[in-house]
Amino acid sequence: RSNPNPTSAPYSKRSASWASTWQPGVLLNEAQPDPPRVVRDLPTLFILLDLCGKGGGTATTETSLSNMLFNGLTPMSDYIATCSYGKAQFDQSNSRVVTVKLPCNGTGHTTKMAWDSSSCSNDNLFNWMYEVEWYIDNVLKPTSWNHRRYRHHVIITPRNMTGWAGPACDWSGMGSIGMAQGTWSYAWVSGDSWQQK
């Protein structure tokens, strides 16, 4: 085909060398000291919560959640290693998945506060977490592990939370800012979003 614009010059290779002026701030090929308060160990307890069968019970199985976290082509453990430049350890040696079934409502064993499953208010979210911890200690009674070893506690709620707990529960995840009670960090992940890293 003929050139429709005969005045334009043909493509030619640039003769001058090109150098980036981007300064990333972190040089990946040099050892860098850790900034203050870098968390290397991420011991995490994942709780598959069944609230009296709401939403069909737990969002998934312990095996499926473990596979997403630790196995396959892009496990969560690789994601955390990449995002932390290999500094943070998150794997099966320092994490655990457990299933807990709670009733639809009750009075907190440790808080003495009434809670229920009809809303995802902050009071209910924290009471679900406190009841899970009480349940582990007093019902499951594990002898080979202690939930206090895991600094990060993550509840995976049942699916369809907006259906059983109201339209205000349309979030994918919630979390405490800092360490709750100065000891653990708490997070709640919607059962509809449990596969989203």
Explained architecture:
It comes from Tetrabaena socialis. This is Peptidase M11 gametolysin domain-containing protein. This protein has about 200 residues and is an alpha/beta fold. It has one domain (about 45-195). About 20% of the residues lie in helices and about 20% in strands. The protein has 4 helices and 7 strands. The strands form 2 sheets. The chain has a 5-stranded mixed beta sheet with strand order 2-1-5-7-6, sandwiched between helices. Strand 3 (about 105) and strand 4 (about 115) form a beta hairpin. The N and C termini lie far apart (about 50 Å).
Secondary structure layout plus pairing:
Elements: E1 44-51, H1 62-70, H2 76-83, E2 95-102, E3 105-107, E4 114-116, H3 122-140, E5 152-156, H4 161-165, E6 173-175, E7 185-189
Parallel strand pairs: 1-2, 1-5, 5-7
Antiparallel strand pairs: 3-4, 6-7
Pfam families: Peptidase_M11
InterPro entries: Peptidase_M11
Domain Peptidase M11 gametolysin: 52-185
The total of beta strands comes to: 7
Largest sheet: 5 strands, mixed
Helical residues, percent: 10-25%
End-to-end distance = 51 Å
- Average pLDDT, rounded to a whole number, is 83
- Read across the widest sheet, the strand sequence of neighbours is 2-1-5-7-6
Number of helices: 4
Number of domains: 1
Element order, helices and strands? EHHEEEHEHEE
- The helix-and-strand class reads alpha/beta
The low-confidence parts are 6-27
- What portion of residues belong to β-strands? 15-25%
Rg from alpha-carbon coordinates: 24 Å
* Principal-axes shape call: globular
Protein name: Peptidase M11 gametolysin domain-containing protein
InterPro entries: Peptidase_M11
Organism: Tetrabaena socialis
